[in-house]
Amino acid sequence: MNKRVIFMSRTAVNFALDVVLLLITLTLIFTTAVLRFVFPVASASVGWTLWGSSYDNWANFQFVLMSLVAGAVLVHIMLHWSWVCGVVITKLLRRPARVAKLDEGIQTLWGVGMLIVVLHFLAALVGIAYVTVQPPPIL
User: Fold this and answer.
1) 3-state secondary structure of 101
2) Where are the domains of the chain?
3) Which CB contacts under 8 angstroms, 24+ apart, belong to 54-61?
4) How far apart are CA 43 and CA 57, in angstroms?
5) CA distance 8 to 123
6) Cβ(50)–Cβ(34) below 8 Å
7) Res. 3 pLDDT band, cuts 50 70 90
8) CA 28, CA 101: separation in Å to the nearest integer?
């Protein structure tokens, strides 16, 4: 049996990722529009269904899509990280390109560090929202 290994070029991988990201984003936009314009507000949507799914099912699907978009964007940034570092160094920090070349290890450390900062910032915002949410008044 002849085994052939198929390698995709970097361009093909980027194009495939961009197509997947576009499809997920369009589906997320559609789902958000359904929740906003088709269903009544969440508090009044009990019992309403669209194509066999309730408001809560649609909202859960929206969260899954949003998570997929976030993951795909992260992969997209990872695939373009050398370019991002080059733009930051040459355009924002105004260093000459020949002097400002970082090795891949340093670029990876910067990327992981930035990811940690962003995730901690988002976690802090969710934590603040969690401790400051107000229940309805007791009548």
Assistant:
1) coil
2) 1-79, 80-133
3) 58/31, 58/34, 59/35, 61/31
4) 14
5) 36
6) yes
7) low
8) 38
66-101 tens-digit pLDDT: 999 999 999 888 888 888 887 777 777 776 666 556
pLDDT at 122: 95
Q: Which residue has the tokens 């019992």?
A: 47
Q: Which residues does residue 129 pair with via DSSP β-bridges, in sequence order?
A: none
pTM, entire model = 0.75
Q: CA–CA separation, 21 vs 15, rounded Å?
A: 10
Do the beta carbons of residue 65 and residue 30 sit within 8 Å?
no
| Angle in degrees, 0-180, between the axes of helices 10-33 and 55-79, rounded to the nearest 10 | 160
Amino acid letter for position 120: H
pLDDT tens-digit profile of 35-65? 999 999 988 888 999 999 999 999 999 999 9
For residue 138, the surrounding DSSP H or E stretch is none
